Amino acid sequence: MGGVVFLNGAWLPAGEARVGIGDQGFLYGAGLFETMRVAGGRVPLLDRHLERLARGAGVLGIALPLSAGALRQVIAEAVRRNRLEEGALRLTVTGGPAGGGLGRAGEWDEHGATLFVTVRAGRPYPDELYGRGFTAVWARARRNHLSPLCRVKSLNYLDSLLARREARAAGADEALFLNGEGKLAEGAATNVFFVAGGRLCTPSPEAGALPGVARGLVLELARGAGIETEEGAYDPDALLAAEEAFLTNALMGVMPLAAVAGRPIGHGGPGPVTRRLQDLFEGWMRFGDMIS
After folding, report:
1. Can you list the positions of beta strands (E) in the chain?
2. pTM for this predicted structure
């Protein structure tokens, strides 16, 4: 992370930006973030990210300090100032400081929110990964599918970070969560899709899946291509028995899922539905409804 960042109305070199120790995001994880892909100097999924941010702010009771239009301008300016052609942009908003800097939990208001935008240059995932696909393990922890936090992209991210650490220790790329009822929920940083009987299946938000921005676009693209889709609650064996599977997030797009816990999915590589949706997704990112 470097370059020029936006922090509460000011543009600063990344090394000079500071958030106070009384900030509710630092003390309690009271905040939200959106990580967006920059492609060709644009943020193609920007409107969808901002819509999810607004929904999450409503759930947490955080008043966004800028309108959607002002946020679009800030993001466009961050891309311009950093001469960012390919990379990632992160928008973070927290409850801000409260209680005279003492941080009394839950006391954020519309005047106290902290908002910052940071960038990172470069393609987030190397091309060779899309050829071989990710491998995954089952996370030891469970997603609490009854928690409202499952439906927002909050700063409470430790379960996912610990699960990713488990995956790395096992030589895998991702960890997959089951929910409290033992149903498939999502990956630590991804949504999960699989193909069964020619139908594209993915866990529903009610099963504990974050309503991912890339997830939503993939469902739209699949339906537009005549691929039958289904959202529901699935046993982990349904994934293991699938014809093919893939993972999504806004930075990676569509990533084949080759194996889980050492068991190959399908033939252990990208399948035809995965490849088709990869092409459709990347085409949309380059030539679709893009925001400059």
Report:
1. 2-7, 10-13, 31-39, 86-94, 114-121, 134-143, 174-179, 184-187, 191-196, 199-203, 229-232, 244-249, 253-260, 263-264
2. 0.93
What is the end-to-end Cα distance of the chain in Å, rounded?
A: 22
Question: 1: pLDDT confidence band, cut at 50, 70 and 90?
Answer: low
CB-based contact 65:74 (threshold 8 Å): no
Give CA–CA dist 211/186, Å, rounded. 10
Q: Which is it for strands 174-179 and 134-143: parallel, antiparallel or unpaired?
A: parallel
Across 109-113, 167-171, 208-212, least confident range: 109-113
Instruction: Give CA–CA dist 266/239, Å, rounded.
Output: 10
* DSSP codes joined into one string, 108-144: --TTT-EEEEEEEES-SS-HHHHHH-EEEEEEEEEE-
- Paired with 144 in beta bridges are none
- Tell which phi-psi region holds residue 99, choosing left (phi > 0), alpha (psi between -120 and 50) or beta: left
Q: Give residue 107's pLDDT.
A: 55
Region of residue 212 (left: phi > 0; alpha: psi -120 to 50; beta: else): beta
Q: Tell which residue, 108, 179, 174, 118, has the closest CA to residue 144.
A: 179
DSSP 8-state class, residue 77:
H
Give the pLDDT mean for 39-57: 96
Of the pLDDT bands very low, low, confident and very high (cuts 50, 70, 90), residue 289 is low
